[in-house]
Design a protein that fits this description.
The complex is a heterodimer of chains A (384) and B (240). Chain A is an alpha+beta fold and 384 residues long. Chain A folds into 2 domains: 167 residues, no CATH class; 185 residues, no CATH class. In chain A, α2 runs antiparallel to α9. Chain A is elongated, with a radius of gyration of 29 Å. The two termini of chain A are 28 Å apart. With 240 residues, chain B is of the alpha/beta class. Chain B contains 7 helices and 10 strands. In chain B, the strands form 2 sheets. In chain B, strands 6-7-8-3-9-10 form a 6-stranded mixed beta sheet, with helices on both faces. Chain B has a 4-stranded antiparallel beta sheet with strand order 2-1-4-5, with helices on one face. In chain B, α5 packs across α6 and α6 packs parallel to α7. The chains are: A alpha+beta (384), B alpha/beta (240). Chains A and B meet through α1 and α10 of A and α2 and α3 of B. The site of adenosine-5'-triphosphate has 11 residues of chain B, from α2.
């Protein structure tokens, strides 16, 4: 039935104060859900940023490793064994470690995640690696992750300002020759990428005969699963062989099993949902209760139970939409603040926007449907 | 009481026969209406009087299909209401204009929107046409200038006039009014009834008005008097 009078809206908006409270409640719920899910996605994203930029067909690593930052070194000789397989056209190495970053301006010391790689071979296609990577051939140079936290000093500004940024890394002077962009996560504050040779200069205790992650490139058109199965066999038990996608899933599995981030942030989003649900239910329930005589009058005039039911449901929809829009705008503002403040790459996505619109509607529909139970108390015989 | 002739009987707008009605269950069950029998003919304006508690409102809610009749027979606008289901009740309610004691205007709607509320049930009437009809009706009940005011800003008399307009809005076949003037001073009350009677007569719509106010008797065709749930007498105003 087309409505000529927006009964749902009029009734809802009649008490301005309550209306504003209800919208604010939905807004808070929407924002909470956006932020929790956004951070969760960002954590997953930032922990796997390198994994997702690996261009090799397969990766090789120590079987006792639990995740990327916990990669145990294994012998390069093991890695070289893959050359025995005819489809293998190239192999590469990634070294991972932590160096001490001593700020030149105030002398404070920070832990810096360091990756050593032959960047020009393009095993990892992070931004800046291919363009600025050539400069890494010089000794004691590195690329700085522009998403590193601010604690490392004004590196990006200085570099972009055309000035040299020199810093002490594990007591060696080194300088920035370019920027890359990965992501800070909860695990580490910042990242630098350097060449294998520079890595070995910085981390002297690390044996040049070892490697953390091996890259394997296959002939174009090669049967990857077949190669993987074969290499797995010849490298066992010294090393595991995975595709980059499997390696990403492996990392996420570790994260999910060992860090309760997934649980915490999912619960945060669920809490947002319930806050919204309770606020809307409370508002709609009292609205129905306060309007019982009016609903009874409408029944007497000839409105069906279904028509009244729809009024309450419509109120739920109005609240969801009016709360969702400003809530989402605010959340995106918060995303910006989080990103600037923490370098955690929280970004709104359309998928999430639709998901949250759906959840918000569900939240309001559920509370509306529950509030309509009170409608039964509207007895048209009470009108006289 | 003259025997109603068969023909008129069939055309009666309301035909009640042997209505008994109880409130409560079991031990607490109390009979409120006893063997109620009467009819309202087309175009008739009938006053229902009786002491407080005599069962007038109960009878009105049965006629208006706001309660379910469980004993006897009650035909309203050609529809038997004994054990009527929800759909039948809704259908009958839509053909009736109700005027309540406490006006029962929706507080969140303007006078205009309150008046056109019944049109929400008639999808074939456009918004523009509804507004036009409602404003004309509000003007004819003397509150055209207060059309955009909300009920909280209207006087008691104005509110009841809006309620009269609302009751006429859906072109009802019967109007039921329960003490529509009890909240008004007697002069305003009489004005509202005069208006209602005038507009209904013009449209040939029968009215059943419950009122304590014997002074409006002269505006009606006849009166039915109830006592303790029984119809005691029927008097014709014309003969009085
Ligand atoms: N919902 C109810 N449940 C139980 N008893 C009721 C109910 N409504 C009315 N009664 C009783 O039924 C009797 C008739 O009530 P009713 O309201 O029909 O009287 P009335 O003639 O309209 O009185 P008044 O002039 O005071 O409005 C009264 O004794 C009343 O207490
Ligand atoms: Mg009464």
């Amino acid at each position: 039935m087309p409505q000529k009078i927006s009964l749902a809206f009029r009734q809802l908006a009649h008490d301005r104060m309550k209306f504003a409270t209800a919208i604010a409640g939905v807004m808070v719920a929407v924002m909470l859900m956006w932020i929790q899910l956004g951070i969760l996605a960002a954590v997953y994203e930032s922990t796997t940023v390198i994994h997702r930029h690996i261009t090799s067909d397969l990766v090789v690593f120590h079987p006792l490793s639990e995740n990327m930052n916990g990669l145990k070194p294994f012998s390069v000789r093991t890695l070289y064994r893959v050359r025995g397989y005819p489809d293998v056209t190239g192999i590469g190495e990634l070294l991972i470690g932590v160096v001490e970053w001593r700020r030149p301006d105030n002398g404070t010391i920070w832990k810096m995640q360091t990756y050593g790689i032959e960047v020009e071979e393009g095993w990892v296609d992070l931004p800046g690696l291919m363009t600025d990577g050539q400069s890494l051939k010089e000794a004691d140079t590195f690329l700085f992750d522009r998403n590193s936290r601010a604690v490392f000093g004004p590196v990006v500004q200085t570099f972009l300002g055309g000035k040299a940024f020199e810093v002490e890394l594990n007591h060696r002077r080194a300088r920035v020759v370019g920027l890359t962009s990965m992501a800070a996560s909860f695990g580490q504050q910042g990242n630098i990428v350097t060449s294998r040779a520079n890595y070995l200069r910085l981390l002297k205790q690390f044996s040049p005969d070892e490697v953390h992650l091996g890259f394997v490139r296959l002939r174009p058109g090669a049967d990857i699963p077949k190669a993987q199965a074969y290499l797995r066999q010849i490298l066992a038990p010294e090393a595991l062989v995975m595709t980059p996608q499997e390696f990403t899933d492996f990392e996420l599995l570790y994260l999910k099993q060992n860090a309760p981030v997934g649980f915490v942030f999912t619960m945060g989003a669920v809490a947002g949902f319930f806050i919204g649900f309770i606020v809307v239910y409370q508002i709609l329930y009292t609205d129905v209760t306060n309007n019982l005589p009016n609903f009874a009058t409408m029944k007497a005039i000839g409105f069906t139970d279904w028509a009244l039911f729809r009024i309450v449901i419509r109120q739920g929809v109005i609240l969801s939409v009016l709360g969702y829009i400003p809530g989402s705008i605010l959340a995106i503002g918060f995303y910006h603040i989080i990103q600037v403040g923490t370098s955690i790459p929280v970004r709104p996505t359309w998928d999430r926007a639709w998901l949250l619109l759906g959840l918000t509607c569900l939240m309001c529909l559920l509370s509306g449907a529950m509030a309509t139970r009170k409608l039964r108390a509207a007895d048209p015989a009470d009108v006289f | 009481m003259p025997e109603p002739i068969q023909d008129a009987d069939r055309q009666a707008v309301v035909q009640a026969r042997g209505i008994n009605f109880w409130f409560g269950e079991g031990e607490l069950q109390r009979q409120i209406l006893f063997d109620v029998e009467f009819a309202i003919q087309p175009g008739e304006i009938v006053l229902l009087t009786g002491e407080s508690g005599s069962g007038k409102t109960t009878l009105l809610t049965l006629i208006g299909a706001l309660r379910t009749l469980t004993d006897g027979s009650l035909t309203v606008l050609g529809q038997e209401l004994l054990h009527a289901n929800a759909a039948t009740q809704v259908a009958i309610r839509r053909r009736i204009g109700f005027i309540f004691q406490a006006h029962n205007l929706l507080p969140h709607l303007s006078a205009l929107d309150n008046a056109r509320l019944p049109l929400e049930l008639s999808p074939e009437i456009s918004r523009e046409e509804g507004i036009e009809r409602a404003s004309a009706l509000l003007t004819s009940v003397g509150v055209g200038h207060r059309m955009h005011a909300f009920p909280s800003r209207l006087s008691g008399g104005e509110k009841q006039r809006v309620a009269v307009a609302r009751s006429l809005m859906g072109h009802p076949d019967l109007i039921l009014a329960d003490e529509p003037t009890s909240a008004l001073d007697s002069r305003t009350g009489r004005e509202v009834i005069e208006l209602l009677v005038h507009l209904s007569r013009g449209r040939g719509v029968p009215i059943l008005i419950v009122s304590h106010d014997a002074r409006i008797f002269d505006l009606t065709d006849r009166a039915i008097h109830m006592e303790d749930g029984r119809i005691q007498s029927m008097a014709s105003a014309r003969n009085a």
